[in-house]
Amino acid sequence: MKQQDPKEIFGRRLSQARRMRGMSLRAVAEAIGGKVSYNALHRYECGEMMPGDEVLIAVADVLDKSLDFFFRPFTVELSELRFRKTSGLGAKSEDAIKQQATDFFERYCEIEQVLAVHSSFKDPLGDDRYISIEEAEKAAAKIREAWKLGQDPLPNVIETLEGNGFKIFEVEAPASFDGFSGWADGHPVTVLANWLNQDIPRKRFTSLHEAAHLLVAPHSDLSGKELESFCNRFAGAMLIPADVFTSDLGGFRHRISLEELIDLKRRYGMSIAAIMHRAHDLKLIDASSYRQFCIIRNKRGWRRDEPGKYPGDEKSSRFEQLVLRATAEEQISFDKGAALLNVPLVEFQQTLSEFL
Fold first, then answer.
1. What is the pTM of this model?
2. What distances in angstroms separate CA 85 from CA 104, 193, 211, one per listed residue?
3. CA distance 207 to 203
4. Residue 169: strand pairing partners
5. What is the DSSP letter of 197?
């Protein structure tokens, strides 16, 4: 890898850190309180010169970053990004999320290099091509087989994806953002909004929808709404395989009771709305029954808070466990471990002490 100029590294890190916080250079200059001018910050960011220690510490404090952050070489570039969002997410917020994700996946790759462990990804779909939305069932079945998942409910979608080469990052984000998918250092990556933890079935579905974009994109020419529909159907098929769902419902149904739907939600970690949509996709209910359900759902306010609870949880823990392992085995210092996890040193030491 080509040696990176320290001034260029600092300049790019300065740009990244302020964009992560949604700040302009002028805002940074004002927050520092006269220690450095806008023009000087601009020259730093362009890689033309380096700040002295006093300015460097002030910049790090304002941008809430460790000094180590500003001198870490760039190793990861996000590519082929697909945002899952509403029109309410502005360009500045989108850029901030991208920069936070880039920083996280760089730290993730760094700790893997320290420990000489790598999450390998192998395309499970081989030479298959998918040209219709209905073929999402076939894609999900093949992936379940390749990943040895059987036909049982997925106890933890995040762990399943991480165990098969995906890297997952959860980010503080507005309600207008669900997630995005892309590639980093040759690995499929997914970024999920932290607020999805308030609705675990939705988080599970979103995780699989984003995974579908990465898994299927090389195997299909579908785009736009058709691709979104394919990814939705794939997510549903991964959560409840067609044969299992048909057996659970007992075939075609004229009506499905709320108690049955709540039980299916509890067992499969899938929202009632997604369950009914899947029943309609598989022709286990007719269009009239599905429309009636949608009317009832809107009337009773189930879009915001539907009945039933899913008892499972969905957390990404692999990155944190790798950092704790490297620190416990003295392959990195406590300071480095705290910097990688982006937490205060005291908090990191307390976390690690619980494992010793």
1. 0.89
2. 20, 10, 15
3. 6
4. 191
5. G
Cα distance between residue 47 and residue 301, in whole Å = 54
pLDDT tens digits, 333-342: 999 999 899 8
Report how many domains make up the chain: 2
Concatenated DSSP letters of 46-115 = TTS----HHHHHHHHHHTT--GGGGGPPP---EEEEEEEE-TT--HHHHHHHHHHHHHHHHHHHHHHHHH
> Of 213, 214, 237, nearest to 226 (Cα)?
213
pLDDT in tens, 314-333: 988 899 999 999 999 999 99
The average pLDDT across 39-62 equals: 93
Provide mean pLDDT across the span 81-88: 69
Confidence of residue 84 (pLDDT cuts 50, 70, 90): low
Residue 109 has pLDDT above 70, yes or no: yes
Domain finish residue from 46, 74, 102? 74
Torsion of CA 293, 296, 301, 305, to 10 degrees: -40
Amino acid at 278: R
HEC per residue, 276-289: HHHHHHCCCCCHHH
Answer whether 315's CB lies under 8 Å from 158's CB: yes
Contact 32, 62 (CB under 8 A): yes
Residue 197 inside a domain? The answer is no
Range of the structural domain that residue 25 is part of: 1-74
Residue for token digits 């959560």? Answer: 239
Please report, for the domain that includes residue 20, its CATH number.
1.10.260.40
Residue 81 clears pLDDT 90, i.e. is over it: no
